[in-house]
Amino acid sequence: MPEPPKQPPDLRGTVVAGLWPGAPVPRPSAPFSPVAALSLAALPTRNKAAGLPGPCRRPIAAAVSVSAPLAVVLLSGGLDSTTVAAIARERGFRILALTIDYNQRHRIELDAAARVAAVYAERHIVLPLDLSGFGGSALTDAIDVPKSGVAPGIPVTYVPARNTIFLSVALGWAEAAGARDLFIGVNALDYSGYPDCRPEFVQAFETMANLATKAGVEGDRFAVNTPLAAMTKADIVREGARLGVDFGLTWSCYDPVDGRPCGSCDSCRLRAKGFAEAGVPDPAL
Ligand SMILES: [Zn+2]
Q1: Which of 4, 58, 59, 245 is the least buried, fewest Cβ under 10 Å from its Cβ?
Q2: How do residues 48-80 score in pLDDT, each as one tens digit?
Q3: Per-domain residue ranges of the chain
């Protein structure tokens, strides 16, 4: 009598256990896929080959294929960069989140970045890059943060060349990791007038990135994605809401008082304007 055909073993719950010791293991609801299991098991090796310093420390968030392309997302922990992370995920990218610890005065945002990365990112690097030695900004130096409203001109909260520095660092990680897309939450409508938030700057940086890198000159081109560029703050809130962003994870204030948003710096004002115009309550208040 012939034996009945063998069924593949039910390995649900063990598929991703090999990613890193002690990792929480989400039980997949889909039937076991040997292909997916092989891809997941190979991820630490791929990370190593890509120059990443080891296996992922966080579970891969649901609904992103392990064969999806990587993108480096500059993540400050604010409303804008968090919404950008959600957009990058919706576009099908696996996210490498990069937070620069530039010794900013409002260090609460680093905690916010960690909370957001836990939701969206496959890996999160917080890179210490102390810009306070340069000074020259109310965010890194002993200069008062303006609280009398958004004024014309470039305010003292401008950090010299910050987005050029941040994107350069992101470009380095992207090239090493095999990511060709960078995401940054710059916005040139409801913003503080920073020159390195304008589309001209972003286009120039993208050109530079493709001149400056091995990947770029070999034709494997980089793209700098700025999905918020033409959005108002209210648009950003609506987009985040559409994507299910938990705004309570985010932090925007430049100059918190007793661990709470001050309510009167430019960043607090722009955030409040965005939530008000979108008709969405701000859970961070
Ligand atoms: Zn504030």
Answers
A1: 4
A2: 333 333 333 333 444 678 889 999 999 999 999
A3: 68-278
Tell me: the pLDDT tens digits for 91-108? 999 999 999 998 877 789
Chain position carrying tokens 């589309």: 199
Q: Is the distance from CB of 94 to CB of 59 less than 8 angstroms?
A: no
Question: What is the architecture of the domain spanning 68-278?
Answer: 3-Layer(aba) Sandwich (3.40)
User: How far away, in angstroms, is 192 Cα from ligand 1 center?
Assistant: 13
Helix (H, G, I), strand (E, B) or coil at 142: coil
Annotated binding-site residue numbers for ATP: 75-85
Nearest to 170 by CA among 186, 160, 184, 158: 184
Give the distance (Å) from ligand 1 centre to CA of residue 112: 15
Q: How far is the CA of 127 from the centre of ligand 1 (A)?
A: 24
Residues 6+ apart with CB under 8 A from 107: none
State in Å: Cα 37 to ligand 1 middle: 46
What residues form the annotated binding site? 75-85, 253, 262, 265, 268
DSSP string, 27-59: PPSSPP-HHHHHHHHHHHHHHHHTT-SSS-SSP
